[in-house]
Amino acid sequence: MNAELQTLLLDITSFLDQGGPVMWAIALTSALLWALVVERLLYVLVAFPRYRNRLLRIWQQFQPESRWVRQRIRSRLISVTRQRLERNQPVIRVLVAICPLLGLLGTVTGMLTVFDVLAFTGAGNARAMADGVSRATLPTLAGMVVSLAGLVATLLLARLSGRAESQTKHLLNDTPFGTDQEIAPHA
Asked: Tens of pLDDT along 101-144?
């Protein structure tokens, strides 16, 4: 088992080295992206339901003096809920957008390697040119793969967050209250 893990790590390191230093940047960006995605998924699926249950218990015990006060507090609770659900999602979207740009940077640096080989050895060294082309295409591929997978995860998170927020709004609407007075306070 330990030998298999070492072999896997060597293969990953070899793959990242083939793409040049930009591949390492893509790998770090990908690791951060997926750490944030997993954190958000765990929050929405595990921690948020506990938060919503606690919020609803407090809301059911709350006896507002007027309907207007109840609506203002409900709006505030929904706003805080939305903020909690959307935390780190802008960072995830930025990381998804950065990955193809890093891939493009890898393409440029790989092509510079090809041009260096051409300038130094002429067009006769196909092996060195192939290495530069490999350095150009691997980061592009990696950046696009990470970006597309991150885009799918972003859409999934947005859907889960929207559904959780909608359910919370619905539950706050259906909760019974003690008094139903006028909508606006007296002037």
From this structure: 999 998 888 888 778 777 777 766 677 677 777 778 889 999 99
Is residue 181 a part of any domain in this protein?
A: no
Q: Is residue 74 part of a domain?
A: yes
Its pTM stands at 0.79
Torsion region of 122: left, alpha or beta (phi above 0 gives left; psi -120 to 50 gives alpha): left
Query: Is 183 within a domain?
Result: no
